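Section 5.1 Outputs to date
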Amino acid sequence: MALVSETDQQRIADAIMQAEGKTSGEIVAVIAAESASYLYAPVLWAALVALAVPFPFIFWTWWPIQYIYLLQLLVFAALAAFFMLRPIRLALVPRSVKHARAHRRAVEQFLAQNLHTMPSHTGVLIFVSVAEHYAEIIADNGIHAKVPEGTWTSIVADLTRSIGAGRAGDGFVDAIAQVGGHLSQHFPPGPRPEGGLTNHLIMLPGD
């Protein structure tokens, strides 16, 4: 099931357009299904378990080494296949690693969406990575210098609470309104780059 419906996607696009009508800043909203595939995790954990398999059989049985080796291979293959299941694969990765990867994806999107090219450096990215349960707001230097860091943290907390309650669309609309309010305080409407940036919600598939 998608995090936001098509109706909510339109609401988010309208919220961005409304917020940007009051400021020269730019807001981009991105949802990534996941920020990395983490395919190494199942292989790593399966290998670690398989490495331990031979020891009880070597010391406490008379099995031929060929049988033990075959068992080791079978254990590795079975566990690797089992651990590849998406929920299990994600559970095997430490939260700190997932959050670091999601932050990296957010920075990549800030650059990919050309937010760093805005006049007066007033681009703001609202980023959510679903698989990692991660959300972040990245503001360029112009707005970041005028708005305390805790402001973005508070908006992200509100957004994540809404997502957790099953109201992701409302959460994004509220976050956009709050970000737009801060932009309008410091950067009133003015000339915008020709064409501007996209107003629709950007949906990224998994890696």
